[in-house]
Hints:
Layout: H1 10-30, E1 38-42, E2 48-52, E3 57-62, E4 67-73, E5 76-81, H2 88-91, E6 101-104, E7 109-113
Antiparallel strand pairs: 1-2, 1-7, 3-4, 4-5, 6-7
Amino acid sequence: MAATTRMLTLADGILIISAGLLLGFLYSGTFSTRPAQTAIITDHLGQHQHIDMRRDQVITLQGAIGDSTLQVTGGRLRFTDSPCRNKLCIQNGWIEHGGAAVACLPNRLSVQLARNDNDFDAINF
């Protein structure tokens, strides 16, 4: 039996390119990363505090093992000081997009940037 090769037709190529462009457009519209306007801080007692990400500020938070410092500048947030041993929260750097989070686990502090829209945060099938 001789093997036959099938070539793509012009219509197949147009269909593949169109599908790729459509998927890219839908992905960018659905999962875009917008800057957050509010951060939600959860402390070691489970209490929540909302802060405005549009205002530059330095915030000192009391945690389980001491004080941690957050810096908000230009709509971005980061830990700048913490009493934890490894300083992983500080090494994480800046976060700025809705849904992003950073935490100091030894000090039992976490910060999550709130989304500013009603877009999907998860899709289940």
